[in-house]
C-alpha cells in the first residue's frame, strides 16, 4: 500500500479554502479575483440560490397545507349542517310513521321537501285504505303533485324512514325527484340498493341521488318494536 494513495483529495481541497469570498461580494470587486476564487464565488452563489428556491418551495407548501386544512374544516362544517338538516326532516318523516303505528299500520313515514319547506307528508295506510298503492311515498307524491300542480317533482327531496319498495322506487324515478334520503334499509324488498337499485339505472332517463342511514337506529327500532308488539298481541 502506498501512503500517498490514502488521502488523495487533501492536496486538491486545501487550496480551495480561499477567504474571504462571499456571495455578497460586488461584481466590481471581483476584477482581481483568481480563477479559483471566481469559481468558489460562483459555487457559493449557486448554493445560496438553491437554498432560496428551497425556502420558497417550503413556504408554498406550507401555504398549500394551510389552505387545504381550511378547506377540510369548511367541508366538515358543510357536511355537519347537511347532516343536521337531514336529521331534522327525517324526524318529520318519523312523526308521519308514528301516525301509521297509531292506526296499527306498519310504521313507515315520508315527507317531501322543496326549497327548505315541507310540501307533502305521507304515511303507510295500506290496510286502512285497503289499497296496495297506499304506501307512505305514493301518498306523499300524490300530495306534492297536487301542491305543485305538476307531476314533475324536480327540485324536491324525499325523506323516507324505510328504503322504498319497487313500486315506490319506480314512482320516485317517474316523478323526477332530485334526491331520496333514507332512514333504514330494507334487505327484503328495498330498491335503492338492497335487492335492486332502481334509483340509478343509467338506461333510465332520470337518476335519483340517494343518501342512506339518516336516524337509522330510530327508524329501524320503530319497525322492530311494531312487529314485536304485533307478535305479543297475537299470543
Ligand atoms: Zn312502497
Task: Tell me what you see in this structure.
The protein is of the alpha/beta class and 235 residues long. 48% of the residues lie in helices and 12% in strands. The chain contains five helices and five strands, in the order ααββαβαββα. The protein has a five-stranded mixed beta sheet with strand order 2-1-3-4-5. Mean pLDDT is 90; it is low at 1-16. The structure holds zinc ion. Residues 135, 137, 164-165, 167-168 line the site of zinc ion. The site of zinc ion (ZN) has 6 residues, from α4.
Structural class, from secondary structure content? alpha/beta
Number of strands: 5
Strand order of the largest sheet: 2-1-3-4-5
Inertia-based shape: elongated
Which small molecules are bound?
A: zinc ion
- Terminal CA distance: 104 Å
**How does the major sheet shape up?**
5 strands, mixed
Helicity range of the residues?
Answer: 40-55%
* SSE series: HHEEHEHEEH
Mean pLDDT: 90
Radius of gyration: 36 Å
Short structural summary:
Helices cover 48% and strands 12% of the residues. By secondary structure, the protein is an alpha/beta fold.
Describe the structure using short key phrases.
5 strands, 5 helices, single chain, 48% helix, 5-stranded mixed sheet, disordered N terminus, alpha/beta, binds zinc ion, elongated, 235 residues
Amino acid at each position: 500500500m502506498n501512503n500517498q494513495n490514502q488521502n488523495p483529495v487533501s492536496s486538491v481541497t486545501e487550496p480551495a479554502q480561499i477567504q474571504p469570498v462571499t456571495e455578497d461580494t460586488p461584481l466590481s470587486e471581483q476584477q482581481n479575483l483568481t480563477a479559483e476564487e471566481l469559481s468558489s464565488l460562483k459555487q457559493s452563489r449557486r448554493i445560496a440560490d438553491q437554498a432560496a428556491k428551497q425556502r420558497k418551495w417550503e413556504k408554498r407548501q406550507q401555504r398549500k397545507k394551510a389552505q387545504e386544512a381550511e378547506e377540510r374544516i369548511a367541508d366538515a362544517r358543510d357536511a355537519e349542517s347537511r347532516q343536521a338538516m337531514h336529521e331534522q326532516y327525517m324526524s318529520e318523516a318519523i312523526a308521519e310513521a308514528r301516525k301509521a303505528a297509531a292506526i296499527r299500520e306498519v310504521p313507515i313515514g315520508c315527507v317531501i321537501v322543496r326549497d327548505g319547506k315541507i310540501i307533502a307528508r305521507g304515511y303507510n295506510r295500506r290496510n286502512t285504505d285497503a289499497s296496495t298503492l297506499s304506501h307512505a311515498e305514493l301518498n306523499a307524491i300524490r300530495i306534492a303533485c297536487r301542491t305543485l300542480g305538476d307531476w314533475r317533482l324536480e327540485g324536491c327531496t324525499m325523506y323516507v324512514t324505510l328504503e322504498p319498495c319497487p313500486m315506490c322506487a319506480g314512482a320516485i324515478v317517474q316523478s323526477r325527484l332530485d334526491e331520496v334520503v333514507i332512514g333504514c334499509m330494507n334487505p327484503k324488498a328495498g330498491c335503492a340498493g338492497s335487492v335492486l337499485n332502481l334509483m340509478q339505472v343509467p338506461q333510465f332517463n332520470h337518476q335519483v341521488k340517494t343518501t342512506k342511514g339518516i336516524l337509522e337506529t330510530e327508524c329501524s327500532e320503530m319497525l322492530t318494536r311494531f312487529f314485536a308488539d304485533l307478535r305479543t298481541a297475537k299470543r
